Amino acid sequence: MRAAVRTQNYKSLSFALAVAPLALNLTVSQPALAVAWITTSPLASPRQSHTATLLPDGKVLVAGGYDGTNILASAELYNPATGAWTATGALIGKRQFHTATLLTNGQVLVTGGFGLSHLASAEVFNPATGMWTAAGSMSSTRQFHTATLLPDGRVLAAAGYGPSGTLLASADLYDASSGAWTATGRLNTARYGQTATLLASGKVLIAGGFSYSNNALSSAELYDPAAGTWAPTDGLGTGRRYGTATLLPNGQALVVGGLGSSGQLSSTELYEPVSGMWQTNGALNTARNSHTATLLSGGQVLVAGGANGGAALASVELYDPATGLWATNGAMNAARANHTATLLLNGKVLAVGGEGLSGYLSSAEVYGTATPTPTEIVLTGAAMLPNGAFRFAFTNTPSVAFTALATTNAALALGDWTALGGVTEVSSGQFQFTDPQATNGLKRFYRVRSP
């Protein structure tokens, strides 16, 4: 019986075959990754109701928010390559409930929100210098509004909660080339807490939100940048605020969850721009509001966290546009609401901050398909077959890729062993390999390695 060998590059199991029953020794390896969310470095400051923006270089800018005691002006940068956060220039003014929009020049426009008072001001972050500069003011203070980058590079800031508790129907356009704000057409319905989606046509779909009577709105309207006007479109089947809206690859807009007239919603709806109509879609497994929805590179939508009945959620669901159905997809390491989720350039999703079950969070975690890691190999069967071939079987982590190698001289360097091919996973976590060449009566040594 030979001792198992382990190197930095692979996990291996070695055993020798005489022409009779053989002995096998097991390897040692690191624990398998059991979850899809991996904790990364925490923020320097806990925060919720902040913004997170993916920069052209792949870093993520987190700005402002509330730490449970103070409204923040601080900003931090996340580097996916190192998993570390570094401080960058602070906002000119403290703010929460603001918006952040990546401009076509690679800079970031922050608008409105609430600081020491209601804010109409805007500022721009320059990644090259790490500094913020003033960017004028909108026609009104606004928070809980939306900001949408238009195809021509302008930014549309629409509706929101204004001064003295007023709801806004006004909208403003920011021109990055001139740094100026100009008023544009007014919405048909004043609202805040709505969603905004840039459609493939270049129009902007506003849906839901709060009304003056503090009810959830079902109305929706379209902004035409060429005309600078708003036109009503088909209304949602269910009034909702604090939901999410995601543009799908097929051009439809998916609206998810939110708060309705009787509490959190599990319902979802699809807007078809060609017909201008909404249709009911598959329901979430858990009703939620103040969650995040992220379009993944494969076209699925990842919904994470949020609140239900006032309690933050850790649960995660995945939407498949091909079936219109939702499937539970594990859970984050921390329950969080009013957090941010950002799709990174590597296809993973960074979830940051938020309000948890016992306070405001500085924690961050990354979602992505984890590479399965082998555990200790457990032999379940090894036998010579009637035709002289040799077969062995073992259990391990499901979906791990193994390769079988063999030699008649175990003293050879690993590079001189013969790769026989991949090991078959006959069922979840059950692996089997057959060597049809083990028929010459010579002692053969085997190894399985991963990757």
Describe this protein's structure.
The chain has 451 residues and is mainly beta. A hairpin with a 5-residue loop joins strand 4 and strand 5. Among the domains are: 11-33 and 372-450, Immunoglobulin-like, CATH 2.60.40; 34-55 and 291-370, no CATH class. It contains no helices and 41 strands. Residues 1-11 and 15-35 have low confidence and may be disordered. It has a five-stranded antiparallel β-sheet, with no helix packed on it. It is elongated and about 90 Å long.
Which features would summarize this protein structure in a list?
mainly beta; disordered N terminus; single chain; 41 strands; Immunoglobulin-like; 4-stranded antiparallel beta sheet; 451 residues
> What gyration radius follows from the Cα positions, in whole Å?
28 Å
- State the secondary-structure class: mainly beta
Mean pLDDT, to the nearest integer, reads: 88
| Lateral arrangement of strands in the main beta sheet | 2-1-41-37-38
CATH class of the domain at 11-33 and 372-450: Mainly Beta
- What is the CATH topology descriptor of the domain at 11-33 and 372-450? Immunoglobulin-like
Low-confidence stretches: 1-11, 15-35
What's the N-to-C terminus distance? 24 Å
What is the helix content? Answer: under 10%
Number of strands: 41
CATH architecture of the domain at 11-33 and 372-450: Sandwich
Major sheet: 5 strands, antiparallel
Number of helices: 0
